[in-house]
User: Fold Apple domain-containing protein from Adineta ricciae.
Amino acid sequence: MYLVLIIFLFICPINAIILSQVYRSAVYHTNSSCARLSNVTLAGDASIQSCIWECAHQDQCRTAVYFHENRTCLLYTEDCQSGNVTSSESDRASVICYRRNQGSHTECSLRDWKNTGTMSVARYRHTASILSNGKVLVTGGYNGVSLNSAELYDLSTGNWTTTGTMSVARHAHTASILSNGKVLVTGGWTGTVSLNSAELYDPSSGNWTTTGNMSVARYYHTVSILSNGKVLVTGGQTGSVSLNSAELYDPSTGNWTTTGTMSVARYWHTALILSNKTVLVTGGCCSINTAELY
Ligand SMILES: *[C@@H]1O[C@H](CO)[C@@H](O)[C@H](O)[C@H]1NC(C)=O
Ligand SMILES: *[C@@H]1O[C@H](CO)[C@@H](O)[C@H](O)[C@H]1NC(C)=O
Ligand SMILES: *[C@@H]1O[C@H](CO)[C@@H](O)[C@H](O)[C@H]1NC(C)=O
Ligand SMILES: *[C@@H]1O[C@H](CO)[C@@H](O)[C@H](O)[C@H]1NC(C)=O
Ligand SMILES: *[C@@H]1O[C@H](CO)[C@@H](O)[C@H](O)[C@H]1NC(C)=O
Ligand SMILES: *[C@@H]1O[C@H](CO)[C@@H](O)[C@H](O)[C@H]1NC(C)=O
Ligand SMILES: *[C@@H]1O[C@H](CO)[C@@H](O)[C@H](O)[C@H]1NC(C)=O
Ligand SMILES: *[C@@H]1O[C@H](CO)[C@@H](O)[C@H](O)[C@H]1NC(C)=O
Ligand SMILES: CC(=O)N[C@H]1CO[C@H](CO)[C@@H](O)[C@@H]1O
Assistant:
């Protein structure tokens, strides 16, 4: 039986958050699906201190379990003394219990779904972007008509407020955060025509300004912010025609230039920036299994 009670007190120096106790060896299970925060396999020379550090730096962590054999650190939202984290009495492990200060106390149920503020307008095929100030900007979309409105979500209150209106109603468009903090909205569909226009949202004023037009009107396209700050737009549809063209936006001039075309016309495809800074484009409508690099 492993239930040896090893009690030692550990005062965490970080942010004065925590008093913790490490108290026994066993494998621990939790019976609520929301309770597991993450598991981290620590580097070869890592110790239990690294597991404590991981828990200390996750706001919701209240229990950490460190497996000595494989140096795996599991983090839970549940209080280890609640009875919801239970022992299976097998492998050698240490359980770290955190008692967080008042105010940082969180319940497992935070991981469930709950309602928050309601937008002023119902919308789909809209965009949502996290601004550098932490607020969320939602733009355009469709709800029977194409929308030009935009709203801001304030996570500290859970409320939405309307903000500046785009010059054009659009859905199936894109929104991207530029390195200067502004939001670039491109293209889209009005319901009757595809759009070549682009607009910039300034979070500090809540205003929109138009910027250069793309050379091609497009919707269902992709946008990637390149490491040099320029913005790559690929493919999409114009009217009912699928596009293989790509264009670059320069935020310093507000102008677009065309760049190399893809080998295949694509819409509803994906574009990702790889760790070596090339752009990987995959698939697209319809039945395209090819991928290409920019
Ligand atoms: C580490 O060991 C524990 C106990 O044997 C096991 O439950 C866990 O799955 C292991 N983790 C990994 C990542 O292998
Ligand atoms: C145990 O988990 C259940 C469901 O997640 C929760 O309702 C209950 O409050 C938890 N018990 C304690 C003592 O935390
Ligand atoms: C889950 O934890 C609660 C609270 O400790 C307990 O009452 C319940 O029986 C547990 N459920 C299962 C399936 O272990
Ligand atoms: C958020 O909205 C609710 C409901 O309209 C209101 O009662 C509350 O005062 C608002 N909070 C803030 C901080 O505006
Ligand atoms: C920009 O925002 C400011 C402050 O919110 C407002 O006074 C001004 O009228 C706006 N300008 C435009 C062009 O919308
Ligand atoms: C962008 O295109 C629209 C029509 O699609 C036109 O009205 C507008 O003047 C153009 N803007 C610029 C900056 O060229
Ligand atoms: C941007 O485009 C405008 C209008 O086509 C042009 O007058 C201007 O010279 C361009 N700026 C740059 C830096 O290319
Ligand atoms: C990045 O990775 C791709 C895929 O392996 C490769 O084709 C490309 O040459 C790489 N680019 C650079 C700059 O290393
Ligand atoms: C023990 C455990 O839960 N391991 C999981 C850690 O996370 C990886 C990836 O999320 C899972 O594949 C492991 O099963």
